[in-house]
Amino acid sequence: MLIDAGLTGTASLIKNAARERFGSSSRPTAIILTHGHFDHVGALASLADDWECPIFAHELELPYLNGEMSYPPPDPSVGGGMMSSLSRFFPRGPVDVTRWLQVLPSDGSVPFMKGWQWIHTPGHTAGHVSLWRDDDRTVIAGDAFITTKQESAYAVMTQHAEIHGPPMYYTTDWDQARHSVERLAALRPRLAITGHGPAVQGAEVERMLSLLVDRFSEVAMPAHGRYVEHPQS
Length: 233
Known about the structure:
This protein is an alpha/beta fold and 233 residues long. The chain has one domain (2-229): Metallo-beta-lactamase, Chain A (4-Layer Sandwich), CATH 3.60.15. It contains ten helices and nine strands. The chain has helices spanning 11-22, 38-41, 44-51, 62-65, 82-86, 153-158, 174-186, 203-214, 216-219, 226-229; strands at 2-3, 31-32, 55-57, 101-103, 116-120, 129-133, 138-142, 191-194, 200-201. The protein has a five-stranded mixed sheet with strand order 5-6-7-8-9, covered by helices on one side. A four-stranded parallel sheet has the order 1-2-3-4, with no helix packed on it. Strand 5 (116-120) and strand 6 form a beta hairpin.
């Protein structure tokens, strides 16, 4: 299984990683999307066409994946870092992978991933989902929360692990984003894999998520901004 599909131009890197891990003739059974922002779907069409595999996403993400809609514009005024400033130039889509696109099952199961469930974690996007495996308390959080300060180019390069809220410049509903972090924190994960930053594990995950929940308005949410005053779900 492949979770998300990176930036444009990373298809060969992803294919090489799959070959190294699973053998030269292997290919994913399916691709699961946490959401459809450009840095999660850049290689999506190429990989799906080459591997001839279905793509699963939440129904609220479908308009951004079937060519119908572009995402709301980013807010470069929040976060204060270079990545925030550059966000005005980031592509907003849409992409069109209708040929392979399917809706995640309504019962919360994840196709072909026994023991996993998807959890609707909106805020960063309307149809954002995270994946959860109860057996070992693992969460694949997408951008519901992340483990680097994504607004800062320096933090992105150094990849020092620290839990943050979703990337500020691309989060369009902060109340929903807060509730999503609260929901994931309540699961008390022991391993967190996120869309930005390194994986973190152990008791520190629960401690850092608890702190993020308690101080969400201070450390995760901008004081002002386009989507603070006017949320868009």
